[in-house]
Amino acid sequence: MISEEIHDASVVAPAFDVQAIREQFPILHRTVYNKPLVYLDSAATSQKPQRVIDAIVHYYTELNSNIHRGVHRLSQDATTAYEHARKAMQQFVNARSSREIIFTRGCTEGMNLIASTFGRTAVGEGDEILISEMEHHSNIVPWQMLCREKGATLRVIPISDSGELRMDEYERMLNERTKLVSVVHVSNSLGTVNPIKEVIDIAHARGIPVVVDGAQATPHISVDVQALDCDFYTVSGHKMYGPTGIGFVYGKAELLEPLPPYQGGGDMILSVTFEKTIYNELPFRYEAGTPNIEGAIALTAAVDFIRQTGYEAIAAHEHDLLMYATELLSEIPEIHLIGTARSKAGVVAFTIDDIHPHDIGTFLDREGVAIRTGHHCTQPVMKRYGVPATNRVSFAVYNTREEIEVLIRALHGVITMFR
């Protein structure tokens, strides 16, 4: 979890050099419409450091082969690199064993995997699943599908006007029919950092397992799944400086062991006849077919980048950006902030009087500024605040105060043009 000390902008490490960080990201050197690129959309996908790009190139130029089944040198080397990546992910979230790490395409596939395996065995007719009002669609739709299939009920923990979980309501909603709680660690549309340890402890006191959507957490927060004691945790690589199409699910081995496979095919089996199939052991049982080998290997390079930069330095720098942007945006009368939780990661969402977010985003783009406009795959959040869409600015370790100032000047231009 984020400590109060990390929230204090004064703890920015003296050795932190944002320009040295930026030099590691080739795309930040490009221009858009002859303007320097100001990339403020990292909650959608982060940019990639050179080491991640190099890892992908190295795989295809030196290692390219299928894994686990080949006896030749390339296959053996690729398998070693892929399983090294699994070990790296185990260490990254402090899982007890690499057997508890299942590679996926990202958090969306991770949630579907959990719903299709654990969910189908744990939830029955008349049961209830709890999610929150701030969830991404990927932590809503799979549970809706499961509830329809099982005749169960999806219940929603409300959030306050500031964008914080109503913990009093959460406790009240838990009952003997609750079979699962699934909650986001950090909101992608509000930036709220949820008290996830408290959420888990309250559920576990009643014997209820908890799934955590960690897509927006791992770029900003050091995650220790053993300390949290979550039952499942999903991670998306492209949010944390890694490639697209790769992520992983952490699951407690004792919960994963008895579950049925998610998909059928190669590598998830030990033996196949026309009469019977014997499934493979953990974690291979849940990784059917040829995986995203180079993605897993390059994700290791992304984790190395985060570790070398340091979570404390990352959090302090991003918090400084968050506070600076919030201060400057708050000084513009036409701007209305959406989501003002006490504990936030680097996301600021806002609307501007009578100007549609898509018009704002288009204007900013011509100034070289990339932000996200729309519902951010959180349409229930938009409904909660009575808006069709918001403008979302999201920060990463490579952003600067100067880029925020470019954003503010561009927003003044938008307001002047539409006034």
Task: Write a concise keyword list for the protein shown above.
seven-stranded mixed sheet; 16% strand; single chain; four-stranded antiparallel sheet; 15 helices; Aspartate Aminotransferase, domain 1; 419 residues; Aspartate Aminotransferase, domain 2; alpha/beta
Brief overview, please?
This protein has helices spanning 4-7, 18-22, 50-63, 73-93, 107-122, 141-150, 167-173, 196-204, 225-228, 253-256, 293-309, 311-330, 357-366, 379-385, 401-418, and strands at residues 31-32, 35-36, 38-39, 101-104, 128-132, 153-157, 178-184, 210-213, 232-236, 247-251, 269-272, 277-279, 335-338, 347-352, 369-370, 372-374, 390-394. With 419 residues, it is of the alpha/beta class.
Number of strands: 17
Which geometry do the CA atoms define? globular
Strand proportion:
15-25%
Tally of contiguous helical segments: 15
Mean pLDDT across all residues, rounded?
94
CATH names the topology of the largest domain as: Aspartate Aminotransferase, domain 2
CATH superfamily of the largest domain: Type I PLP-dependent aspartate aminotransferase-like (Major domain)
Low-confidence stretches: 1-14
Class of secondary structure makeup: alpha/beta
> How many domains?
2
Largest sheet: 7 strands, mixed
CATH architecture of the largest domain: 3-Layer(aba) Sandwich
Account of the protein in words:
The protein is α/β, with parallel strands linked by helices and 419 residues long. The protein folds into two domains: 138 residues, Aspartate Aminotransferase, domain 1; 255 residues, Type I PLP-dependent aspartate aminotransferase-like (Major domain) (Aspartate Aminotransferase, domain 2, 3-Layer(aba) Sandwich). 40% of the residues lie in helices and 16% in strands. The chain has 15 helices and 17 strands. The strands form five sheets. The protein has a seven-stranded mixed sheet, with helices on both faces. A hairpin with an 8-residue loop joins strand 13 and strand 14. Helix 3 runs antiparallel to helix 11, helix 4 packs across helix 11 and helix 12 runs parallel beside helix 15. It starts with a helix and ends with a helix.
